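User: Could you go from structure to sequence for me? I need the amino acid at each position, not a summary. Structure tokens:
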């Protein structure tokens, strides 16, 4: 494990708008009647990843100067990076208001995934999640989300960054507009060009947002289910009191999936809480009729967490029950555990000095 600090944020220029917060529509509004200019700026900012408006060489010099008076390209500052034994890398970014968020770069067989945050902290209060201990501070702007993808693409050109998962800090569907805008930008062929099939928004189950989501984006959906009955789920996820399982499951059934796609059901296994074969059987019944695959995640403990990781034998038994069902089941490999970069271990460096 290593820790280092870098400082490469642009100086703060109050009053200027950050081009990273724009999408295609926003840029078009900047150049009425000249949409080709908006396309050029889009490709400089999100495709080539330039940090300086002056570098947009196919724009006339006076236009660049004019744009620089009102706009800038301001990335969050990288204030820490830790690399785990398995090469998983956690990056801490300081935002302009001083808040710190974390992102994780995850090595896969032949490519990398980025796990991005959508909020500073989180209001959902899930009992098993470290981020919950921070409480909620604010939503991220779309630029702050997009930067978490653009920065590593530029900083690590040798890593093929192909997947983006909204599984970092925060509840993406409570920051709906910025998350949708960020997803559109990162999948744009003139931008970072991540395939829509390789972007996944993960939610704890904000039912009213689910009905809009399929209309607003074609990226994948994951739902953190974590329990097969309301009693268990409400105990570990307070959001279940507002949107109980029956409502959540019927919203998922109504969710219009592109052909051959399935919803990912995430299930964090917690010792003695939701990890018995009987929970697994009830999970199968609950999911009946849903186009879903199940992703099992053994609980990752964090400092002061009261819950415990499951016994590996119970994980296997749970998995076995699910294998005997129509649902594909995957056991998520724990990566980056030694640097608190695994699922549910992000907390903006607030508690562990990242
Ligand atoms: N708010 C979103 C995204 C953030 S959580 C959501 O709820 O989906 C991302 C995933 O990490 C969720 O599936 C969550 O259940 C899981 N998770 C959270 N804390 C965890 C922990 N300590 N160990 C293992 N998985 C955890």
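Assistant: Here is the amino acid at each position, in order:
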């Amino acid at each position: 494990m290593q820790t280092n600090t870098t400082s490469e944020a642009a100086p703060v220029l109050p009053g200027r708008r950050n081009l990273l917060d724009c999408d295609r529509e926003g840029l078009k509004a900047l150049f009425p009647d000249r949409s080709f200019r908006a396309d050029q700026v889009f490709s400089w900012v999100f495709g080539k990843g330039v940090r300086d408006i002056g570098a947009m060489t196919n724009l006339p010099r006076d236009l660049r100067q004019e744009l620089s008076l009102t706009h800038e390209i301001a990335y969050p500052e990288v204030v820490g990076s830790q690399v785990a034994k398995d090469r998983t890398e956690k990056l801490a970014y300081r935002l302009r208001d001083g808040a710190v968020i974390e992102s994780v770069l995850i090595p896969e067989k032949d490519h990398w995934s980025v796990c991005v945050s959508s909020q500073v902290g989180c209001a959902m209060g899930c009992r098993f999640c470290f981020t919950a201990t921070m409480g909620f501070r604010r939503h991220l702007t779309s630029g702050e989300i997009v930067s978490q993808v653009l920065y590593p693409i530029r900083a690590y050109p040798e890593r093929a960054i192909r997947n983006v998962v909204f599984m970092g800090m925060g509840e993406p569907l409570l920051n709906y507009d910025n998350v949708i805008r960020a997803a559109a930008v990162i999948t744009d062929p003139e931008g970072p060009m991540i395939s829509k099939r390789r972007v996944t928004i993960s939610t704890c189950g904000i039912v009213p947002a689910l009905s809009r989501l399929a209309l607003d984006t074609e990226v994948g959906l994951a739902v953190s289910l974590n329990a097969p009955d309301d009693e268990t789920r409400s105990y570990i996820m307070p959001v279940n009191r507002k949107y109980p399982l029956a409502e959540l499951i019927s919203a998922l059934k109504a969710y219009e999936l592109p052909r051959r796609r399935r919803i990912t059901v995430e299930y964090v296994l917690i010792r003695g809480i939701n990890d018995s074969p009987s929970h697994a059987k009830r999970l199968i019944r609950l999911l009946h009729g849903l186009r879903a695959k199940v992703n099992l995640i053994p609980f990752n403990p964090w400092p002061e967490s009261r819950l415990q990781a499951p016994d590996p034998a119970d994980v296997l038994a749970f998995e076995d029950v699910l294998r005997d069902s129509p649902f594909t089941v995957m056991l998520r490999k724990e990566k980056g555990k030694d640097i608190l970069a695994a699922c549910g271990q992000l907390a903006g460096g607030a508690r562990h000095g990242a």
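One structural detail worth keeping in mind: Residues 1-12 have pLDDT under 50 and may be disordered.
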